[in-house]
Design goal:
Blueprint (H helix, E strand, L loop, with lengths): L53 E2 L20 E2 L6 E2 L12 H11 L8 E8 L2 E8 L5 H11 L12 H9 L5 E4 L2 H9 L3 E5 L5 E4 L29 H11 L5 E8 L5 E8 L5 H12 L10 H8 L11 E3 L2 H9 L3 E5 L5 E4 L10 H4 L3 H30 L21 H21 L2 H21 L5 H15 L4 H39 L1 E2 L2 E2 L9 H8 L26
Antiparallel strand pairs: 1-6, 2-3, 4-5, 5-7, 6-8, 7-8, 9-10, 10-12, 11-13, 12-13, 14-15
């Protein structure tokens, strides 16, 4: 239902001849259109009435999630659709007098206090009508067309009997309309951009999809660039992101379930999966975790939702993979993964996630299998260098007897004015400072800032004896390996591990390095992401899956889905 500038309303109707009241084809709900997946109530903050609005023109085969199966005796049929409009709680009813309705809006929706909460009052066929909308979200042409069509009302016929029904059937040029008797539901829909049509004397209102969100066009992802391949990436608009995925998977079994998170932000969250592939246990677990979220809001989007559902605590390693590329998300969906799309976030969460999912990049699959395997191994070397190069060199520098003869060139002839461990820590902090400065520096000044950092900080620091050449060299190699890591979150976690190894070598030499590295590895083997072992397929060992990670297999040989996803259908290609 979240459509905006992509055409949620038909504005091409011409004014009918005088006296005609026939029903335009564009005014009716299309019988065969897709049913909207209503959001489930999240936590304790959603009233029982808030999820009860039904799409007019569609008969539901089962009660929507969170809906009380017992209907109120005052329920009545929604015009033209055969769906029940439940009776709300007494304190949640919509006032039948215009003045009382406006007073409700003033007290509970900020009418006359917030400039963007607008009510357009009119009179048609002796009926007082009000259009409630947010001026910041509403498409002007859509509201203008609604008002124009209302001027066609014939006062001598149906308006004196059931005004709301007549407006819906004969005069409303909208593709998506809901009916509700709940004031809370009405305000929630108004806050997401829908237009509310109120008729004095009626206990129901019409919720019309006529919204238009501020949005941008898809651009190339910043963190997942490729030499060859698509250049479109996700945006901050949920509808656009869903469309980018559906463009790549034209499967009627692709599902996107909607939910809302946050008592105040009411952020839209979409759970995407392929019905006959995804693991139903994982899907139900994810639903339950999202429903259990009880928080004011998630204005920072997917990261806050991750922390509320995954709850990784102080573990620096990411338990969820993020992607800004629709083709990557589509590939994971076909492999049995479940994706979570959060409105206002330009990235998508992929579940479940393992460590080895985070070290793969789309560029490898855009090249031939041999070149893709080569690029993958180069990337693996860079990731390992970013973690172990500095601690191992420091270990050899502090213990020359450990170096074999063919590594005799390693080590430092002079240590400089500062101890080596202090030099490493200062360089690490300096790299982080330069990275943060590059993020916050205006684009035209980034090059100048980089030159200042490289020449003044690097060269002069070595000449003055603050750092030695070896520290700068190996730190630079480690930084390059860190930047070559596909997952930004994983690169930051690897940096923390590198610092821990350096401190362990400084304190306990060889035993410190061995114990620290072993403890970190054992800790990672105990981590689970949505009940999936984090170090799979290494632990537990799966030779076939590990081989598909070490080598970029040709597509004809990729016949099965990863077993870690526990998909309903494991094969992607027929046998033989």
């Amino acid at each position: 239902m979240e459509q905006n500038e992509h055409g949620s309303m038909d504005l091409t109707h011409e004014r009918p001849p005088a006296g005609m009241r026939r029903e335009d084809p564009g005014d009716r709900e299309v019988e065969g259109s897709a049913r909207m997946i209503l959001p489930k109530p999240i936590g304790r903050y959603v009233r029982s009435e808030s999820a009860r609005g039904t799409i007019v023109g569609h008969r539901s085969d089962r009660p929507s999630e969170g809906r009380d199966s017992r209907r109120g005796e005052g329920s009545r049929k929604a015009g033209g659709g055969g769906s029940d409009v439940p009776e709300p709680d007494p304190e949640d009813r919509i006032a039948v007098r215009m003045e009382d309705w406006l007073e409700q809006l003033h007290k509970r929706a900020g009418y006359q206090d917030s400039f963007d909460v607008q009510v357009r009052q009119m009179t048609f066929a002796d009926k007082r009508v009000g259009l409630l909308f947010l001026s910041t979200f509403t498409k002007d042409t859509a509201v203008t067309e609604i008002i124009k069509r209302l001027t066609y009302v014939d006062p001598s016929s149906v308006m004196d009997q059931d005004a709301l029904e007549a407006i819906f059937k004969f005069y409303l040029p909208a593709n998506q309309v809901q009916r509700t008797r709940s004031f809370t539901k009405m305000v929630e829909d108004m806050l997401i951009g829908n237009t509310v049509l109120y008729v004095e004397g009626e206990r129901e209102v019409l919720l019309i999809d006529a919204k238009q969100f501020p949005s941008r066009t898809p651009d190339e992802p910043v963190l997942e660039k490729v030499v060859r391949g698509s250049k479109d990436g996700f945006t901050e608009t949920l509808l656009m992101n869903v469309a980018l995925v559906r463009r790549r998977i034209r499967d009627p079994r692709l599902r996107f379930e909607m939910a809302k998170v946050g008592t105040r932000t009411q952020t839209d969250v979409a759970i995407g999966y392929i019905e006959d592939i995804a693991n139903p246990e994982l899907l139900e677990s994810l639903r339950d975790k999202i429903q259990a979220v009880n928080i004011d809001g998630i204005p920072l989007g997917d990261k806050q939702l991750e922390e509320m559902t995954v709850k990784s605590g102080w573990n620096p390693y990411p338990l969820v993979r993020y992607s800004e590329r629709p083709d990557v998300v589509a590939e994971h969906l076909l492999n049995g993964s479940i994706v979570v799309i959060v409105d206002t976030s330009p990235s998508v969460m992929l579940l479940p996630t393992t460590y080895f999912d985070l070290v793969q990049h789309a560029e490898e699959n855009r090249q031939s299998p041999f070149i893709g395997t080569y690029l993958r191994w180069v990337r693996f070397f860079g990731i390992l260098s970013s973690v172990f190069l500095l601690p191992i060199w420091y270990l050899f520098a502090q213990n020359p007897w450990l170096r074999p003869d063919w590594l005799a060139f390693l080590g430092a002839e002079k240590t400089g004015e500062l101890p080596l461990i202090l030099q490493f820590l200062l360089v690490e902090v300096g790299i982080d400072l330069m990275r943060l400065a590059a993020v916050h520096t205006p684009t035209p000044l980034v090059t100048a800032m980089s030159l200042v950092s490289a020449i003044l900080v690097g060269d002069i620091a070595v000449k003055t004896g603050l750092f030695i050449n070896e520290v700068i060299l190996y730190m630079a190699v480690s930084a390059i390996g860190m930047f070559a890591t596909p997952s930004y979150e994983l690169s930051l976690a690897n940096r923390i591990v590198r610092l821990a190894l350096l401190v362990a070598v400084f304190l306990y030499q060889v035993p410190g390095f061995v114990i620290c590295a072993t403890a970190i590895f054992i800790g990672l083997t105990l981590v689970r992401s949505f009940n999936a072992p984090y170090m799979w397929p290494f632990i537990p060992f799966n030779a076939k899956a590990l081989m598909s990670i070490l080598l970029r297999m040709p597509q004809p040989r990729a016949v099965s889905r990863p077993s870690i996803n526990r998909s309903k259908k494991m094969r992607k290609q027929p046998v033989g």
